[in-house]
Amino acid sequence: MISFRRSSLSGARLLPLLVAGTTAFTTGCGNSAIVSSNLPLERVVVYRNGIAYFERGGKVDESTVRFKMKEAAVGDFLATLAVMEKGGSSVRAAAFPIKSPDDVPQCDPNPQPVQRKRRRNDDEDDAPRLRTCSEEERRHIREVVLELDGEEHDLQLGYVTEAPVWRPSYRLVVEGNGQASMQAWGIVQNLSGEDWKDIKLSLVAGAPLAFEATLGTPVIPTRPTVTDEGEVIAAVPRSETTLANAPEPPRPAAPVSVPQAESAPEPDYDGAEDESDAPNSKDKKMDVAGQAARRGPAGSASAGGFGSGMGRAKSATAAKPMAPPPPPPRAPVAPSGPRDLRSLAAISATGGVTRYDLPVRVTIPDKSATMVMLLSKKIPGDAAFLFAPDGGVPDSYSHPFRVVRFVNKSGGTLEKGPIAVFDRGAFLGQGMVDPLPDGATATVPFALDRSIALDRSTKTDELGERVQKIENAQLTIERDSATQTIYRIRNGANTSAKVLVKHPRISGSRLEKAPATTEDNVGTGSALVPYDLGPNAEGELVVDERVSIQRIEGWTTAIADSAIRGLLANPAVDAATKTALTEAWKLRTEIVHLNDVEGELRTGLYEISNQTEETRRSLRAIEKNKLADKLRAQLTKRVEELSHKSEELGKKQVETQAKLAELNVRFRDLLRSVKYVAPVTTKPTNGAAFDKSRT
Prior knowledge:
Among the domains are: 33-97 and 132-163, no CATH class; 452-568, no CATH class; 575-677. Helix content is 19%, strand content 33%.
């Protein structure tokens, strides 16, 4: 006899409850139930990963508590069973039957009528038939028995088994002025095989790690096989030949004696051959340590020496003992059991897992679905437009979606589920809410709006220059590779529109001068950039993304000059660095000027060389013409003038190059004394603030 008590919830607020697809209540512990018992069911906690936690409790006056369950559920039941005894006594053991591979079928699950065969002797009996399986045997039902000590028990136990996931469903009513009303419902399906009568129901918005256990299935690990195949000589030994030698001459001083013939030691045939029962190392070697790791501590194979003798009397050797497997990994110390299973659930609720506990008891018949309201409250929310091209909606590349935006102020995580959107009593559409943590904002599309049109174009450039490092007279600068995306938006409606552009972000880039309310979503690789547009208006939204690139730059380029002047204007740079750079930059100005002068001289010399060569070709052309004496004299004079001018320019070029070499040496000496590394700053993602020392 089992008696039980249940505590009632006083002052609990009744939530709306919907029951869909209700079937007749099952009575007793049906054989089709996943887990059933005569111990009353008190609490069910449904998760989002295909499992549910069941809690049973009551006062027991017998010495056993019996559970009936499907064979596939035995492993999960044994792996998660937790028992609390309030009366001071305890549970001795949990016994359950197992099937052996050698078991002979005791019954026939699908009996067929046996037809009598013709025999020679009519008085012969028919062959024996198996009995028909019972309903429990046919459904593979197993019974687990908890053995108790003492006479009175106040038990409370919990276990986990498979169950359909609960699914959320949301309703959002847009009220205007940035406010909305939200309702969250949870749909629970009972396929456990028994009615959940007057239970406490909890829904958890999370999926804890859970696996299918097979503790109820016997496991016999494979052991290494050791055989004795005797010893066989694989090849016939070759004989040895001794060549004849001349006899040694007799020694005269030595007495003559007749030596005794020495007999060679006879082989001991009783134990001449050594036999080993060790397996062949090439064919029989097994990874015992690997098997032990796969089987776990309970399945480690034992390896020891085998008995010697093997039927030999004298010199038979014992088999070599196999190396013992490495010790199994130490099992983690099991935590002590909780004093109250319900308090354990309360602790889990504070560990970042959202849990909905219904304040009133509910009844969910077997093979039925129940829809319960989880929350109903006012939250920040409004309607807007979202430009987010989707391959499944071709028109979305030119027109935005109508969306609803709301902030999750429920105090917990909202699971993924459908949402129905209403505005002023009218149904606007449906969307899908992704998992939304507390305090996060969701933007859910529910329709496509063709009153607003968009197109986009891009352009790239390199902008800005900053000194990154000066070391060993080498200049490293940093520039921004800027990619600007221009969205041209036109509103054809008579009302203003707030458009959100879902802009795909460039990896590693930062947004430059983006609107303050831009949402840069790192996890999705996109940014929501807002743009307000008046009625029947047109505008452009420019999204500027910058990626910093570094390279070594020459000291005489215009980019280097701009970067150094920006560094000298930075008040954060120390005085010694500024002094050295200022003096070096004066030399750099002279060097740049002399480089220009030397370039002009080089160009002039090149032109004079070309003119001289052209004049000499003309002289060679009129060399034998006696009537061109006057022209020959003019050309000869021109060659002399060009040679004189070339000598002057060459002299100036040499002087300029010598001065340049001197200035370059002084410039390099000054730069070697300068060492500067730009401070590391965190790049802002919305362009609202930047380190002034880097601009």
